[in-house]
Amino acid sequence: MFDLVDILKSGQASSHIEPEKITTVLFHQTQECQGLVLESYRFEGITEPVIAPNKDENISEHVRLQNVEIVLIELNNSNNVTDDAKRISHLLPSHASVIVIGSEDAISTIRNLKEMGFYYLFWPITKQELIDFVRSVHDNRERNRGPGQKRRAKRVTVIGAKGGVGATAITAELSYLLSNVKHSSCIVVDHNYNSGNLDIMLGVQKFEKRRIQRGSFTDSLDLASAKSLLHKQNDMLSLLGLTAPDLTQGEVSEYHRSVIDIMSAECNFIIEDMSASSGQVYEVNHSWLESDCILLVSTPTVSSLRDAGRIKQIIDNVPPSQRPRLLIVVNNTMPEKFASVSLAEIETFLHQKADLVIPFIGDFGNVILDGKRLANINNKSANSVKSLASLVIGESTEKTHSLFKKLLSKVK
């Protein structure tokens, strides 16, 4: 005999089915796309995505959640999908898989996005096509496959032509701007293994370099042990500084490389502070040439310019297809009237215009020791410092340049 009560109870229990969990964020440009995504997730019983308009401030606010698995970015209103994807790539965490939805029908777009570690879904699409694609991407995540595995941090190396040109200060300001203003996760690497003042420039309190010893586990270094070597300044900025009195500079440098290689999948930018005075710039392997972007810092003096020319020659010898992007930064560590070379002479000698000129900042020491940032001080000299991050990520700096155009003319 049927027990109707038991049947009803079992039916009620089975009705409480847990939704399929694929943690997703959608940044949309059109109501049509927003509606299709929501309806698709609801129909398939997948946890509804977080929804927000496609604006930079929304992206930086929402995608930093550690549990985000998939980021959907609609670029149907974009005039150039590749360029817009590049522009916002620094806002996207490396741990999330990114699907770009766009109506640009070109194989080059698919190829370009794949090189960036993004998936591309051509619009218009059906609900079933969307869900199948999302599940495929999620499956790739579980199996560690797909374009997302190629997403690595952009490596930016700040090279001082010689000691005392301000490379460390520029490294600190750049890391602050990228992490606090541009909302990109950064790891700063200190290549001065015995001393240095990068911690002071960054405002890091009671910092001590991590000590490593001969026989350290370079071969067995994993993510957990690599993270343990970092000093976490805040959620978006960490510092890697190692020291090893018993090891050669080359051995410590190799250890740095191992840590950087592991952590490059965990952040947006790796910023390396490297002065030519350390000798590493002229080492045989030139590992810094593997950077995506190099900031070559020089003062407007003959000796500094000559050393900058030597470094630039090393870069110029790299085949164009493999050559990192080079930005020339002229930093006035003394009042401009004491410059021994002009901007025109610098351009002639280096065969490249200065991308950024930083005017002399008289109260530089007081600003840093007071725990403030150069980019936040209220004077015209700060405007050039603010341009640093925009230059690195390829944003226009025309407005900032116009504010200190008179200062540039004085240097000339």
UniProtKB/TrEMBL annotation:
GO cellular component: cytoplasmic side of plasma membrane; cytosol
Signal peptide interval: none
GO molecular function: ATP binding; ATP hydrolysis activity
Family matches, as InterPro entries: P-loop_NTPase (IPR027417), ParA/MinD_ATPase (IPR050625)
Keyword entries, A-Z: ATP-binding, Nucleotide-binding
GO annotation (BP), single: negative regulation of cell division
Protein name in UniProt: Chromosome partitioning protein ParA
